[in-house]
Amino acid sequence: MCSNVIAVAEFSGRCRGSPVRISKLVHELGGRVTSYIPETGVIMGFFRINVLDSQEVEKKCKSFVENAAGDIDDCRVWIRILLDVKLGETLCKAGSIKLSSSTANVSIVRLANNVYALWRHRRTDHVKVTLLSQTLRPHPGDLSELSISCGELHKLLGSIREDLLKLVESKK
Hints:
The structure is a single chain. This protein has 172 residues and is α+β, with helices and mostly antiparallel strands. Helix content is 31%, strand content 40%. Strands 1, 2, 3, 4, 5, 6, 7, 8 and 9 form a nine-stranded antiparallel β-sheet that branches. A hairpin with a 3-residue loop joins strand 5 (97-100) and strand 6. Helix 1 (19-28) runs antiparallel to helix 2. 28% of the residues are buried.
């Protein structure tokens, strides 16, 4: 199985607890807090998850939701995915819309569960994938779908994992 499918879960919200405690937890998950504004209490950060490793997804999602999200009011999360070039090219071939510039190629891909934007900058080894919307929603593409409640992280990563597993299996 391809091991180069890393999801970067970025989060933000108003910190109700200790920002130091949240920072330590996020560090244990393989990420870091990128900003904390004491005046407003807003905290932002990220952590990485290997999407194709179901045990890692389960462990990190559970730990984040149970420990950090409880200390963050209105915790929101959004997902970026890093793919290796070969898997990115396979996904790009499924794209319905392709845009190109002198520095990057962008494709929009609709898979079974989600719609993604793929960004490949020239001279790089990775494709950045951003979740645009969930295809099962009544109005796919609503901007509100770019970020979700932190409590829904496990469900979202499950649908992304399902899409990418189908892609990896079809590549074999």
